[in-house]
Design goal:
The protein has about 100 residues and is an all-alpha fold. Helix content is about 70%, strand content about 0%.
Length: about 100
């Protein structure tokens, strides 16, 4: 039976920093529609819109964090970021207006 020390329970500092960065960037992006709603009636988001957008942004950031930490070459990092970015844009557009299905309408 193995025992865990206190050091094994903590995240690596660089991983903790990456997770904090994802959380802060997600919050900053969600502030854009929140502020826009104060100045115009053209932006109308509900609480569920913010929750879904937050989940999508945070998930994308987390998924992007791991290949960028593991892949070594710039080319492979760009390819991974491009594929993940396209997946994000597809999900966002599908939820917003339902380009290929009726999910957004």
């Amino acid at each position: 039976m193995s025992t865990m020390t206190g050091n094994e329970l903590h995240l690596k500092p660089s991983l903790a920093k990456s997770l904090l960065t994802v959380a802060l960037v997600t919050a900053a992006i969600l502030l854009i529609p929140l502020v826009a709603m104060q100045f115009t009636t053209e932006v109308v988001w509900t609480g569920s819109d913010f929750v879904i957008a937050g989940i999508l942004l945070a998930f994308t950031g987390l998924v992007l964090t791991f290949p960028l930490r593991k892949l070594r070459t710039t080319k492979s990092r760009l390819i991974a970021a491009g594929v993940i970015g396209l997946g994000f844009v597809y999900c966002w557009a599908e939820l917003a207006v339902g380009i290929f299905t009726n999910l957004g309408s």
